[in-house]
């Protein structure tokens, strides 16, 4: 049987790495994308160690650069396989933060631009670059956040960027439905064991985030990966144009 080709962006750490492993466990061929080559190589080695014979291919790319779409297309064409599913985990929290209200408009703009580039454009570039190379019946999954519902730190650029993905998912679902391609977003709450917060959250903030959940614990990357896997597999084929929240009850549904 010809393996499915799955593309996972942001696959060198956290949720993306767990997602790449989940598909490798299923004997899919996985293309793993991230900017940093060394961390990407380590992620591939880690997955290969736990999934012997895994068919993994790393590709170092900055997906906030539009030129990466072409590089990605060349790479996919060289595999000779259509893309079955694309999971856009690449994203980050802006390092810069706008000042207190009205004090620093320039810093606020920088925060919003960084958030938009890192969380929206990385998805748009990967999706629009790969759509012509996707097989009918495949799936696109974008990664939002509970912050899209509740707001985020700084002056809110991160949460707003994630909310922009919701609208994009609905547009994609309508555009791609006739090809049998589903498009959904996963909106996680706090997930431990990722590198999204650099060296980690301050203990007090982490305790507060865990206390906000009904289940009194953080999510795990493998739990988010399982939902992505479901959306890209036949049993999840009728789910499209949805934002699926997975947050231990820290934010009520809908
Ligand atoms: N962790 C959480 O609690 C949480 C909660 C809600 C939503 N999310 C969302 O879930 C997704 C995954 O988060 P995570 O926690 O797994 O983050 P993470 O551990 O920081 O991993 C992010 C991945 O994205 C890659 N990346 C970042 N910018 C990129 C770019 N411009 N081009 C290509 N790759 C890029 C990173 O590698 P390089 O830096 O080497 O490129 C890394 O592989 C993100 O969209 C995040 O916003 C996470």
Automatic annotation (TrEMBL):
What Gene3D superfamilies does the entry give?
Answer: NAD(P)-binding Rossmann-like Domain
Q: Which residues form the Ketoreductase domain?
A: 4-194
Q: Which SUPFAM superfamilies match?
A: NAD(P)-binding Rossmann-fold domains
Protein name, per record: SDR family oxidoreductase
The cross-references to PANTHER family, in alphabetical order and at most eight, read:
3-OXOACYL-[ACYL-CARRIER-PROTEIN] REDUCTASE [NADH] (PTHR42760:SF78), SHORT-CHAIN DEHYDROGENASES/REDUCTASES FAMILY MEMBER (PTHR42760)
> What is stated as this protein's family in its record?
Belongs to the short-chain dehydrogenases/reductases (SDR) family.
Q: Which GO terms describe its molecular function?
A: oxidoreductase activity, acting on the CH-OH group of donors, NAD or NADP as acceptor
SMART domains assigned to the protein according to its UniProt record, in alphabetical order: PKS_KR
Q: Name one Pfam family in it.
A: adh_short_C2
């Amino acid at each position: 049987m010809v393996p499915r080709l799955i593309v996972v962006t942001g696959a060198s750490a956290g949720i993306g790495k767990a997602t790449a492993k989940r598909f490798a466990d299923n004997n899919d061929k996985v293309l793993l994308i991230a900017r940093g080559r060394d961390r990407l190589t380590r992620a591939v080695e880690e997955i290969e160690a736990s999934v012997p014979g895994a068919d993994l291919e790393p590709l170092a790319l900055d997906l906030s650069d539009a030129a990466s779409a072409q590089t990605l297309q060349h790479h996919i064409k060289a595999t000779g396989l259509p893309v079955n599913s694309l999971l856009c985990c690449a994203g980050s929290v802006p390092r810069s933060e706008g000042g207190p209200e009205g004090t620093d408009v320039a810093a606020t703009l920088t925060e919003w631009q960084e958030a938009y580039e890192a969380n929206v454009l990385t998805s748009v570039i990967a999706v629009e670059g790969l759509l012509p190379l996707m097989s009918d019946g495949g799936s696109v999954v974008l990664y939002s956040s509970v912050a899209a519902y509740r707001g985020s730190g700084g002056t809110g650029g991160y949460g707003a960027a994630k909310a922009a993905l919701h609208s994009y998912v609905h547009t994609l679902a309508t555009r791609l439905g006739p090809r049998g391609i589903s498009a959904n977003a996963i909106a996680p709450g706090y997930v431990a064991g990722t590198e999204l917060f650099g060296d980690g959250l301050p203990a007090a903030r982490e305790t507060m985030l865990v206390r906000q959940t009904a289940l009194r614990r953080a999510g795990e990357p493998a739990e988010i990966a399982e939902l992505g896997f479901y959306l890209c597999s036949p049993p999840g084929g009728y789910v499209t144009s949805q934002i699926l929240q997975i947050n231990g009850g820290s934010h009520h549904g809908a």
